[in-house]
Design a protein that fits this description.
Blueprint: H1 2-21, E1 23-31, E2 42-45, E3 51-53, E4 59-64, E5 69-74, E6 77-83, E7 93-95, E8 105-108, E9 111-114, E10 122-126, H2 127-130, H3 139-142, E11 149-153, E12 162-166, E13 179-182, E14 185-186, E15 213-219, H4 222-225, E16 236-241, E17 248-263, H5 272-287, H6 301-304, E18 309-321, E19 325-337, E20 344-357, E21 362-376, H7 387-393, H8 414-419, E22 421-439, E23 444-463, E24 472-495, E25 499-522, E26 537-560, E27 564-575, E28 584-595, H9 600-603, E29 608-622, E30 633-636, E31 648-652, E32 661-674, E33 679-691, E34 694-698, E35 707-711, E36 714-730, E37 734-751, E38 764-766, E39 772-775, E40 782-785, E41 787-791, E42 798-801, E43 807-808, E44 817-821, E45 826-836, E46 839-849, E47 852-855, H10 858-861, E48 911-913, E49 916-927, H11 930-934, E50 941-955, E51 978-979, E52 986-996
C-alpha cells in the first residue's frame, strides 16, 4: 500500500514540470492573397490526436508545450508545417490558395459558402476577369462570362439599361430582370423617364463604379435564389465591393484610361450623287414628282451627326488594414462622349468600406457609396428629332446651313435641335449599409444590418424659340428612397470531425417611397431665360406612392464527412402589392450534393481531382407589378372635372384575388476537375416552370375598363449551362488559360387567358406594334408577320406568301404567320488569357445564335412613296428594270407602290437573322519588372495596356442593319430584339495605366 502511494506521488511530481511548461498559443490564419481570415482551418499537433479549428474570424487558441510542430490544413489551400518556438505564445499563419477554384469562398444570399461544398447553381465573376475593361455599368462586365446569362445592350446610347436574362425570362409583363444586390442592399430599379428622357430606361447600376467591385455572383437555380423569395424568379446578381485586408500594408492604386469611340457598324444610305440620280430616274416615276436639280454642294448628314467620341476614366483607391481594422476607399471620375452628337455622360463617385473588430465578440462595419451623374441625353432615341435617326433620314440635297452660316430650316434641323436645346439628366444616389456582428460563442453569432438606397433623378430640358413657338421648357424630379433592416441568428459548428451544421434564421423589412413632380412651361421672352419659372404659361403635376416587404428567412446546411451535402431554405414574404388575404407567400428550396471524388473508387482512377453531383428543387416568386394593382383606384384633376368643378373618376378595376406569381425550378449539376485541376467542367440541366403569371391583359368591356393585372398563364424555360475552363499551357514563363461557356435555352408559353385569339384559335398577347406576340405554344418573343418572298424577276412586282404557302402580290392580314423568335437558342463566351513573362494578352468573344431581330427603320428607308422626302437605303439602287433582273426593289411602275404602298409594309423583309459572334475585348498589357520599380522608391506595381472593344463582328451576310445586338425597349423582355434606328454598339480603342504605390 505504501509502495503504491509512493509510486503515485512520484509520478505526479515527475509530470509537474511538464504542466508548468504548458502555455496557450493564439493566432490568426488568413489567406495569403487577400488577407481575409480563414474559418475552419484544422491545426493538428503532430505526433498526437490533439487538433483544433479556427473560428469564423480566423482566430485560434490551443495549449502547447516545448517546441512542437503544427500542421495547418484546409481544403483548397496548401498545407503548412511550422515549428513553434520555445517561448512563442502567438503564431499568425498565411495559407496560399491552390489554383483550383474549389478554394474560393463565394458570396451567396445572406452569407458565404465554399465553392467546394455548395449545392447551389452559382457563377462567380471576379475582379480579375474584368480588370481594366471600360464599362459604363457593371452588367456589361457579365456579357460572355457566365453560362446561362444572356446580356443584350439595348443600344449604344450612354446610360441605357441592358436586357439581362438569367436562364430565360420567368415572367411576361411583371418584373423580368434579375434582382441586383450590392453588399446586401437590393437596389431600386424603377423607370424614371419622360418623353424627353432618352430611349430605354436608365440602367439601375449606372452609379456603381466597376473599379470598386470585388466580385459578382449570379444565383441561377431555386436553391440559390429562393432565399430572396418573392424576387428570385429571374435570378439574383450579388455584387460584393472591395474591402481591403487585415494585416495588409496600405496600398494606393491609381488607374487612368483614355479612349476613342466610333460606331461598330452603319446603315448604308445614298450619298448626294446616288440620291439625285435615283430620285430623277425612279422616284419621279413612282410619285409623279418633278425632277430635282443637283445642288452645288450636297450634305453628308450621317457624318454631321456622328463623331469620334472620347472617354476618360480616373480611379484612385486606397486599401489595407491592421489586426483589427480593414478599409477600402475609392473615388472615380468618368467622362464619356458618345460617337453621336448630343450624348455625353459624366460620373463622379466615391466609396468607403470599413470594418473594425472591437473585441473578440464584436465586429462592426459600414459600406457606403455616393455618386453623381450628369448626362446630355438625346431625345427619345427612336424619335424623329434624334440625331442618329435624322442623320439617316435627311436627304443629301437638304442643306444643313444657309449661305450666311445660319441653320437651314431650324425647326426640322437636327443640328439646330441639338445645339439650340438643352436636355440634361442628373442622378444623385447614396447607397450603403451599416452592420454589427456579435459573436456569442465561436459557433453562434448575431448580426444586424441596416441599409438604404436613396436615388434622386432630375431632368431639365429647354427648347429655343428658334425651334418653334416661343420656346418650351420642362423639369421633372423623381425620388425613390429605400430603407431596409435585416437581423439574423447564425450557427456554424463541426461535430466529431464528420458532421458540419450551419443554420440561419433572419427577419427582414424593406420599404420604399417614390415621389415625382413635373412642371412644363411655354412662351419665353428670351432664350437667355432657361428656367421653367420664366415661361408665360406653366403646368405641373405630382404623384407619390410607397410599398413594403416583410420577410422571415430560414436556411440550414448539413455535411457528413465533407462529401454528402444537404441544404434547405424557406422564406415567407409579405408584400404590400397584394390584398391582405393574399399578402404572404411561401418560397422554399431543397438541394443535395455528393462529392464523389472523396470516395475510394473515384480516387483509384487517379486522374480525377474533384467530382461533385448536385440536385435541387424549389419555388421562387415575383411581385414586381404596380404598387396598387389590386385596388380599385380613382383619379382627380383636370380630366376628372365636371362642369368646372373638382371631381373623381375610376381608373382601375378592383382585384382583391391578385396574388403571387410562382416559378418552380429543378436543377441537376455535375462538376469535374481533372489533370491536376487544369481542366474543369461544370454542366447543369434545369427546368423552370412559371405559373399564375402576373399579366397585364384585356378585361371584359362590361367592367368599364380596358386592361388590368391578373393571375393567368404559364410559361416554361428549359436549358443547359456548360462551362469549361482549361490551362493548356503552364510553364514558368508562359501560361494560357481558356474558358468556354455555353447556355442553351428553350422557352415556351404554355397557357394564356382566352381574351385574344388568332385565326388558328391560339391565345396570344400583342407585345408591340412591330409584329411581336406572346403566343401560346411558342416562345415568349415570337414574331407574327407576313412572309416576304422577293421581287418577281419577270414582272418586277414584290411577292409574299399566303398563310398556306402560295405566292401573292396582294397579301392580307390573315396571311400573317409565325416567323421566328427574338429569344436566342444559344448564348455564351470564349475567353482567353495568355501570360508570358511581363506581358499579358486577353481575347474575349461573345456570341448569340438562333434569334431574329426586327429592324423597323427599313420600313422607312425602303419606302419612296412618302409625303415627305427622306433619304433611302442604298440597296434601292438595285431596282427592277427589265425581265430577268434579280432586283432588290420593284419596278418604278409596280402597282405595289400605289396599292397601299405594300412593298414597304411590315413583313419579314425587315426581319433578320440576329446571330452574331463578336470580339468583345482584345487587350495587351505589360507589367513593369519589379527591379525597375524598386529604383523609383515609390511604385510597387505598374501595368501599361492597350485594349479594343467590339472590334470585329461576324453576322449573317444578309443582315442589313448597323448592329445585330439591339433591344429597343431595354429591360422590357416582352418586346426584345426590336430596333428603330437604335444606335449601334460603340467600337473603342483604349490605352491606360495601373499604378500601385
Amino acid at each position: 500500500m505504501k509502495k503504491g502511494v509512493f509510486l503515485y506521488l512520484f509520478s505526479l511530481i515527475s509530470v509537474l514540470p511538464a504542466f508548468a511548461q504548458m502555455r496557450t498559443l493564439t493566432g490568426t490564419v488568413t489567406a495569403d492573397s487577400s488577407g481575409a481570415p480563414l474559418p475552419g482551418v484544422t491545426i493538428h499537433l503532430k505526433g498526437s490526436t490533439y487538433r483544433v479549428a479556427t473560428n469564423p474570424d480566423g482566430t485560434y487558441s490551443m495549449n502547447v508545450d516545448g517546441t512542437p510542430e503544427l500542421l495547418f490544413s484546409m481544403v483548397g489551400y496548401s498545407s503548412r508545417e511550422l515549428k513553434v518556438g520555445p517561448a512563442m505564445t502567438r503564431l499568425d499563419v498565411k495559407l496560399q490558395s491552390l489554383s483550383s477554384k474549389l478554394s474560393e469562398v463565394v458570396v451567396v444570399g445572406y452569407g458565404e459558402q465554399s465553392q467546394q461544398y455548395t449545392t447551389q447553381a452559382v457563377s462567380v465573376v471576379k475582379a480579375a476577369d474584368f480588370s481594366n475593361v471600360p464599362a459604363v455599368t457593371p452588367q456589361q462586365l457579365l456579357q460572355g462570362q457566365v453560362a446561362g446569362v444572356s446580356m443584350t445592350n439595348s443600344s449604344g446610347l450612354l446610360g441605357n439599361a441592358s436586357l439581362l436574362r438569367v436562364r430565360g425570362t420567368a415572367s411576361i409583363t411583371a418584373g423580368t430582370q434579375p434582382l441586383f444586390i450590392v453588399d446586401g442592399v437590393p437596389l431600386n430599379d424603377g423607370s424614371y423617364n419622360t418623353a424627353y428622357g432618352g430611349g430605354a430606361s436608365l440602367n439601375p447600376l449606372l452609379e456603381i463604379n466597376p473599379e470598386d467591385i470585388e466580385s459578382m455572383t449570379v444565383l441561377k437555380d431555386a436553391a440559390a435564389a429562393a432565399i430572396y423569395g418573392s424576387r428570385g424568379s429571374n435570378g439574383v446578381v450579388l455584387i460584393a465591393t472591395k474591402k481591403g485586408g487585415y494585416r495588409q500594408k496600405t496600398q494606393i492604386k491609381l488607374d487612368y484610361a483614355t479612349g476613342w469611340v466610333s460606331p461598330a457598324g452603319k446603315i448604308d444610305v445614298m450619298n448626294g450623287e446616288e440620291y439625285v440620280g435615283f430620285f430623277n430616274n425612279y422616284i419621279t416615276k413612282v410619285t409623279g414628282a418633278a425632277p430635282i436639280t443637283p445642288p452645288a454642294q450636297t450634305t453628308d448628314w450621317p457624318s454631321l451627326v456622328t463623331r469620334t467620341g472620347r472617354n476618360n476614366n480616373y480611379a484612385l483607391s486606397a486599401s489595407g488594414g491592421n489586426e483589427k481594422t480593414r478599409f477600402y476607399i475609392g473615388g472615380n471620375y468618368a467622362n464619356d462622349e458618345s460617337f453621336v452628337i448630343g450624348n455625353n455622360l459624366q460620373k463622379l463617385s466615391g466609396r468607403i468600406n470599413l470594418e473594425h473588430t472591437a473585441n473578440k465578440h464584436l465586429r462592426i462595419g459600414v459600406n457606403f457609396t455616393t455618386a453623381y451623374t450628369n448626362m446630355d441625353r438625346i431625345t427619345v432615341e427612336s424619335g424623329t428629332l434624334a440625331p442618329y435617326t435624322r442623320g439617316l433620314q435627311n436627304t443629301p440635297v437638304t442643306p444643313a446651313y444657309t449661305a450666311d452660316g445660319q441653320y437651314a430650316t431650324p425647326t426640322n434641323n437636327v443640328l439646330a435641335n441639338i445645339n439650340l436645346s438643352t436636355n440634361k439628366y442628373y442622378t444623385r444616389r447614396n447607397t450603403g449599409n451599416a452592420y454589427a456582428k456579435l459573436n456569442i460563442t465561436d459557433y453562434l453569432w448575431l448580426k444586424t444590418d441596416w441599409g438604404m438606397d436613396l436615388l434622386e433623378t432630375e431632368e431639365r430640358y429647354r427648347r429655343s424659340s428658334k425651334l418653334g413657338s416661343t420656346g418650351t421648357a420642362g423639369r421633372a424630379i423623381w425620388q425613390d428612397y429605400k430603407w431596409l433592416t435585416t437581423n439574423s441568428v447564425n450557427f456554424e459548428k463541426r461535430f466529431a470531425e464528420t458532421h458540419y451544421v450551419s443554420l440561419l434564421a433572419a427577419h427582414s423589412y424593406e420599404t420604399a417611397r417614390y415621389d415625382d413632380i413635373r412642371v412644363t412651361g411655354t412662351g419665353f421672352i428670351s432664350d437667355l431665360l432657361p428656367n421653367v419659372g420664366s415661361a408665360a404659361t406653366n403646368t405641373g403635376n405630382a404623384t407619390g406612392k410607397a410599398w413594403g416587404l416583410e420577410s422571415y428567412i430560414f436556411r440550414g446546411n448539413y455535411r457528413y464527412k465533407d462529401k454528402y451535402l444537404f441544404e434547405g431554405t424557406l422564406r415567407r414574404d409579405g408584400s404590400s402589392r397584394f390584398d391582405g388575404n393574399n399578402r404572404y407567400g411561401n418560397f422554399w428550396a431543397v438541394s443535395g450534393g455528393w462529392i464523389m471524388s472523396e470516395e475510394q473508387f473515384i480516387r483509384d482512377l487517379g486522374f480525377i481531382d474533384y467530382m461533385k453531383v448536385t440536385a435541387s428543387y424549389g419555388v421562387t416568386g415575383n411581385d414586381r407589378i404596380g404598387y396598387y394593382d389590386y385596388m380599385g383606384l380613382y383619379t382627380a384633376g383636370v380630366d376628372a372635372n365636371y362642369g368646372g368643378n373638382a371631381g373623381l373618376r375610376p381608373t382601375q378595376i378592383r382585384n382583391p384575388k391578385l396574388s403571387w406569381e410562382e416559378s418552380r425550378q429543378m436543377d441537376l449539376g455535375l462538376a469535374v476537375h481533372v489533370l491536376d485541376n487544369r481542366l474543369q467542367v461544370a454542366v447543369n440541366y434545369y427546368s423552370k416552370h412559371s405559373e399564375n403569371l402576373l399579366l397585364y391583359v384585356v378585361v371584359p368591356s362590361t367592367t368599364g375598363f380596358g386592361f388590368a393585372t391578373r393571375n393567368a398563364g404559364e410559361m416554361r424555360n428549359r436549358g443547359v449551362d456548360l462551362q469549361i475552363t482549361g490551362v493548356p499551357v503552364k510553364t514558368r514563363d508562359l501560361q494560357w488559360t481558356t474558358t468556354l461557356n455555353l447556355g442553351y435555352l428553350n422557352n415556351k408559353v404554355l397557357s394564356l387567358p382566352p381574351d385574344n385569339r388568332d385565326d388558328e384559335g391560339r391565345n396570344y398577347i400583342l407585345s408591340s406594334y412591330n409584329g411581336q406576340r406572346v403566343l401560346q405554344g411558342h416562345s415568349l418573343n415570337t414574331f407574327y408577320l407576313l412572309r416576304y418572298k422577293g421581287i418577281n424577276p419577270e414582272t418586277g412586282d414584290p411577292e409574299w406568301y399566303t398563310k398556306d404557302g402560295k405566292t401573292t402580290s396582294t397579301p392580307a392580314a390573315k396571311d400573317q404567320t409565325i416567323a421566328g423568335s427574338a429569344m436566342p437558342k444559344w448564348t455564351g463566351g470564349f475567353n482567353n488569357t495568355v501570360r508570358y513573362k511581363q506581358f499579358d494578352l486577353g481575347v474575349n468573344f461573345y456570341f448569340s445564335y438562333g434569334n431574329k431581330v426586327m429592324l423597323t427603320e427599313f420600313k422607312e428607308l425602303d419606302n419612296v412613296y412618302k409625303n415627305v422626302a427622306t433619304n433611302v437605303s442604298r440597296d434601292l439602287l438595285n431596282y427592277w428594270q427589265k425581265p430577268g433582273d434579280q432586283a432588290f426593289a420593284p419596278s418604278a411602275t409596280s402597282a405595289s407602290w400605289k396599292n397601299g404602298n405594300s412593298f414597304a409594309q411590315q413583313s419579314t423583309a425587315q426581319l433578320f437573322d440576329g446571330s452574331f459572334l463578336r470580339l468583345k475585348t482584345l487587350s495587351l498589357g505589360y507589367n513593369v519588372p519589379a527591379g525597375l520599380l524598386n529604383n523609383t522608391h515609390i511604385l510597387s506595381g505598374a501595368r501599361l495596356y492597350v485594349m479594343g472593344q467590339n472590334l470585329w463582328t461576324v453576322k449573317s451576310k444578309h443582315f442589313r442593319g448597323a448592329d445585330p445586338e439591339v433591344s429597343q425597349y431595354g429591360t422590357n423582355a416582352q418586346v426584345a430584339g426590336e430596333s428603330y434606328y437604335s444606335l449601334p454598339q460603340p467600337k473603342s480603342i483604349t490605352v491606360g495605366a495601373n499604378l500601385i504605390f
